[in-house]
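During the no-cost extension, the postdoctoral fellow (Dr. R.K.) reprocessed legacy sequence entries with the updated structure-token encoder. One reprocessed record is reproduced below for audit purposes.
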Amino acid sequence: MPEPAPQEYPASLVALRVNGTERTLRLDNRTTLLDALREHLDLTGAKKGCDHGQCGACTVLVDGRRANSCLMFAVACDGSDITTVEGLAQGERLHPVQEAFVARDALQCGYCTPGQICSAVGMLDEAAAGHPSYATAPPRLPAEGRAAPGTLDALDALDALEALDAQEIRERMSGNICRCGAYPNIVDAIEEAATS
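Re-encoded structure tokens follow.
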């Protein structure tokens, strides 16, 4: 009896700007962004931990916002700007968050570290833009009324980053798990990066 022909699944051309480089891939529509990065672009920094969006090991930045790449279809990211841990450094100079992780020894086995770093970069940008968290104190209201969400002047942005104490950082980074328990040094590293 002859073997049945393999079933073909719908595929699409997906255009991504990954770490500043335009890439076009022909992908099965079911391919996650994580698998596209790891298996098609050889960018293995983002890790497949739980494959359910619960551990944060696969965190990358999509159009500047942190995202669990294991939960996103690559076709849904068509036209997006993707930044992985490999794309954070500027040439030989590490990103300030990467430098702080090294200086504070904020890792043990290192498996979660790329996701922790990408999440920290996104989280610091969110805090600077005035995005609240569960631990955030109520916002100051200007004399003329409530400011539009995400509209901070430079002084308010500095205040937002300086307000990132350990409790605030833990809350904002709660989607990233470190099975080794390097949390104290991770928090220290993020505090250092926030003030550098």
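The chain has a mean pLDDT of 89. The longest strand covers residues 11-18. The remaining legacy entries will be reprocessed before the final report is submitted.
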